[in-house]
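Trying the structure run again after the queue cleared.
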Amino acid sequence: MESDKKLIGRSELEKLFSQWQSQGTRILAPKKNNDTIDFALVTTLAEVSLDQVQTVQSAKTSVFPRVEELFSFTSRDGRVVIRERDRNALPATVLFGVRPCDAAAFAALKAIFTWDSPDDLFSARMEKMTVIAVSCARADAYCFCTSVGGGPGATAGSDMLLTETGPGEYLAEIVSEKGLMAVGETSGLRPCPANVNKEAHLAKLEPAFAREKVAPALARLFDDAAFWAEQSLRCLGCGACAYVCPTCACFDIQDEGGGSGQRLRCWDSCGFGLFTLHTSGHNPRPVQSQRWRQRLMHKFAYMPERQQVLGCVGCGRCSRACPVDMNILEHVRSITEAKP
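Done. Tokens:
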């Protein structure tokens, strides 16, 4: 549908929270817990934190939980009985307060989980979720969304985007039927005057590299072992970057229980040495430099080629979370600038 622009005040947003609560809708939003701000269940707008540049964790847990039961099973007398998850029991969700980069990340996750064999659980969660993003009024040194096709006020992936234009006053861009349904019959939406300048309220962030140059540079450097050894010298292989990333979707499958139990999908990371270890003992990526190369190849070369979407939205979380200060923006820039 064509984007519809309205104005909405904080008091009307608070009424929307009450409306969603009365409908039994789960609301996930950034919430402060001691010194950390992360997505959590909330019931009121007053619980929501919107002052941070970013949360520590991304919003991908809303559709791709850290650990998820795929089905349960019972084995008895040589027979195995499978009990599938009830997709209808998954909760309707409003994901409120994500940044535009996080909203854009759902396109990458969707490309992965619906690529060859569509994942029913992921698709059901996406179908039941409404994404209400909030534009970025400021950025930090780790942000680079404008280098990968996004922007502080981009609407991609959102059902509604809010941009604060004054204290307690928001420009609401309703960009999908879900966004329209989320506001329902609320009378708090007002027509948006033509002189509202959205850009004046957004963070200013110049592109740091040309994204179309990354994949050709990666292909050229693929066999340069010395280059990748230098790039990955500090990498501990801890996986923090993958776990906070809004688009990383590596997982493994584990069965818990003997005669009866659950089959679980658990987050994993291509940065771990065990990730590609074969039962035979062979590991096609035995050293960290190869695993770091794989991480960048997957995000900037393999995904654009196979799924027509970048695997990075420039949120900068991996750089903020890295215990040894590896900065993906600096690494990608050095890749594009490496001499042939």
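The CA atoms of residues 137 and 257 lie 49 Å apart. Worth checking whether this holds up in the mutant runs.
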